[in-house]
């Protein structure tokens, strides 16, 4: 029995070394050296046989295959057969312990990069290379879903949409896959037709299913169409994240099959026998519910406020954590100046005590009740140009609008480049609702269709003319004076649309034009109103019950329904100015 354990340890160690060795060779390789079939290689390895064996393995992953050890040995050799080595690398990961496997997929070149960086081939070419990369990835994905494995944190909430429409199609997929049947083309088509134009993993799966369906018909005309459909599926994956492609690991965490959607092409899903990869659970750790990397979390919330409002920030964070339905989805980004950092950390420590855990992977990362908290240090000059400063008078009247923290909202993409949308909150709020609900409730149409950049609550009683000098002869553009304004202290930003409209650049350009206060007086809100007043999706007023710092007289009915309370104005409960 003891000898057997030693054997297993040895085996796990061996496969780990193999992966590291292959990863090493993988970096050195260059796409132009690809010879897909590897049949011409004179490296003494029978690559066609290797490939054949991989297919035998995939037909019955749980079987006892005598060739496995020789495949592991080949994986450790040097060769130019790039794809072959990648396959053997993935095979080694299949036989790792669940913890090692999770680590290999989330941190090594096998999983932490987009598939395109790993195998620079289209889906079409990958399938035609005849190397079963997708099949091996499918097996790895099933292993990760196995309840006895340590659960990878849930994947990105934006790509993995699961609304009613998606659930219906997902059910069809599940049922057909379980029965070994094709996905009816009609189901895929209907789902695609009804889905919003935004990208999603579900739509990728639908396109891939359609493509595979046509591919298996085998007619040359349909084959061309299949190729196009597969490319559409890939494009869905490519555009899910902002400015980058989803990583293999992210794809693997998805609830959708994004490599194959047709049973005839998929490997058998029976998993390798557990005695080859003994399941071991990680010891429970305080941050365990929140082990997703910052980037993999789908709901990003930005909180920015200066240390005068530290207690506001703590209260906002505390309330947000209490209200959130799925802590694992949420990452809160807190912004601080260097000199505020130690105070902030100390304050977090004493407010949250044992509910606070450090993120071992990230010195600036913490977990509060499972919600990831990431602290970003910024400098004043990064966010605040001279033109942005406000008149001294306003500072007293409306709270400290001059604090650099107020201008962080214009530059969020710099610190959170991977977020598709960001919920921005001032620190003088109390969140009574679920911030995930706010995040998920907006932008059901792609910005290319809707033209919307922000979602915010309208302030119908405060028209644009209240903030902007719309009638000034120096106002270079026409602005509808009586259109409603909005408060930019609670908003959801579509980061793609924001980038596309160059909002950061335009805000700075407008601030320069406003040097002499010809266009507006107050700080950070007016340029957003000016630029985006007609690009805002209105949300229900319960999401920003504001003005609490001006008057104590908001109706109690509204306050009781409120999902976010907002103390705009000079009176903040934590400054002791309210009785
Ligand atoms: C994303 O992947 C596609 C291929 O699927 C590739 O053409 C593109 O360059 C990749 N984009 C980035 C930003 O890496
Ligand atoms: C963004 O806007 C600024 C100001 O108008 C301009 O100088 C800059 O070139 C723009 N950037 C892009 C990428 O369009
Ligand atoms: C609250 O008070 C302000 C200022 O005193 C007043 O203008 C406003 O109409 C009041 N609102 C309500 C709902 O009573």
From TrEMBL:
Q: Which Pfam families does the UniProt entry name for this protein? A: Glyco_transf_8
Q: Which UniProt keywords apply?
A: Glycosyltransferase, Metal-binding, Signal, Transferase
* GO MF annotation, one: glycosyltransferase activity
Gene3D superfamilies membership: Spore Coat Polysaccharide Biosynthesis Protein SpsA, Chain A
Q: Which residues form the signal peptide?
A: 1-23
Could you tell me which residues belong to the region Disordered?
A: 266-293
* One GO CC term, this protein: Golgi apparatus
Which family does the similarity line name?
Belongs to the glycosyltransferase 8 family.
Identification of the protein by name: Glycosyltransferase 8 domain-containing protein 1
């Amino acid at each position: 029995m003891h000898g057997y354990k030693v054997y297993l340890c040895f085996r796990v160690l061996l496969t780990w070394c193999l992966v590291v060795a292959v990863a090493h060779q993988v970096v050195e390789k260059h796409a132009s050296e690809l010879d897909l079939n590897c049949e011409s290689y004179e490296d003494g390895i029978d690559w066609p046989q290797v490939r054949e064996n991989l297919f035998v393995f995939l037909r019955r992953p749980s079987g006892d295959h005598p060739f496995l050890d020789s495949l592991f040995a080949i994986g450790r050799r040097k060769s130019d057969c790039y794809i072959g080595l990648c396959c053997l690398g993935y095979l080694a990961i299949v036989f790792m312990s669940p913890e090692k496997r999770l680590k290999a997929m989330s941190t090594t070149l096998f999983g932490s990069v987009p598939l395109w960086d790993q195998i620079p081939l289209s889906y079409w070419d990958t399938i035609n290379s005849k190397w079963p990369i997708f099949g091996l990835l499918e097996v790895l994905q099933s292993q990760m879903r196995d309840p006895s494995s340590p659960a990878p944190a849930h994947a990105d909430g934006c790509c993995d949409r699961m609304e009613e429409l998606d659930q219906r199609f997902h059910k069809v997929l599940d049922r057909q896959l379980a029965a070994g049947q094709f996905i009816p083309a009609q189901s895929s088509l209907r789902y695609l037709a009804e889905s919003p134009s935004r990208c999603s993993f579900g739509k990728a799966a639908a396109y891939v299913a359609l493509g595979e369906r046509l591919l298996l018909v085998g007619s040359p005309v349909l084959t061309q169409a299949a190729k196009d459909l597969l490319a559409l599926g890939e494009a869905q994956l490519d555009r899910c994240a902002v400015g980058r492609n989803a990583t293999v690991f992210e794809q693997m965490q998805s609830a959708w099959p994004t490599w194959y959607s047709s049973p005839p092409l998929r490997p058998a899903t029976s998993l390798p026998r557990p005695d080859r990869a003994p399941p071991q659970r990680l010891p429970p750790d305080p941050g365990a519910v929140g082990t997703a990397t910052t980037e993999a979390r789908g709901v990003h919330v930005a909180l920015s406020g200066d240390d005068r409002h530290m207690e506001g920030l703590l209260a906002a964070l505390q309330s947000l954590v209490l209200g959130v339905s799925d802590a694992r989805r949420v990452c809160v980004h807190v912004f601080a100046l260097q000199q505020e950092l130690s105070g902030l950390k100390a304050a977090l420590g004493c407010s949250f005590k044992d509910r606070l855990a450090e993120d071992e992977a990230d010195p600036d990362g913490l977990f509060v009740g499972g919600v990831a908290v990431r602290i970003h240090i910024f400098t004043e000059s990064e966010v605040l140009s001279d033109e942005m400063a406000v008149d001294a008078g306003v500072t007293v009247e409306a709270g400290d609008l001059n604090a650099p923290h107020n201008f962080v909202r214009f530059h969020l993409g710099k610190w959170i480049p991977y977020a598709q949308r960001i919920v921005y909150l001032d620190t003088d709020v109390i969140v009574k609702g679920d911030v995930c609900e706010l995040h998920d409730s907006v932008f059901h149409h792609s910005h290319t269709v809707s033209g919307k950049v922000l979602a915010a609550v309208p302030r119908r009683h405060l028209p644009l003319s209240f903030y902007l000098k719309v009638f000034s002869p120096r106002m270079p553009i026409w602005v509808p004076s009586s259109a409603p304004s909005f408060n930019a202290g609670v908003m959801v930003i579509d980061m793609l649309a924001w980038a596309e409209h160059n909002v950061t650049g335009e805000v700075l350009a407008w601030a320069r034009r406003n040097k002499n206060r010809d266009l507006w007086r107050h700080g950070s809100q007016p340029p957003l109103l000016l630029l985006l007043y007609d690009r805002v999706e209105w949300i229900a007023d319960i999401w920003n019950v504001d003005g609490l710092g001006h008057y104590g007289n908001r109706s109690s009915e509204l306050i009781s329904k409120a999902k976010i309370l907002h103390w705009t104005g000079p009176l903040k409960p934590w400054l002791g100015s309210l009785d």
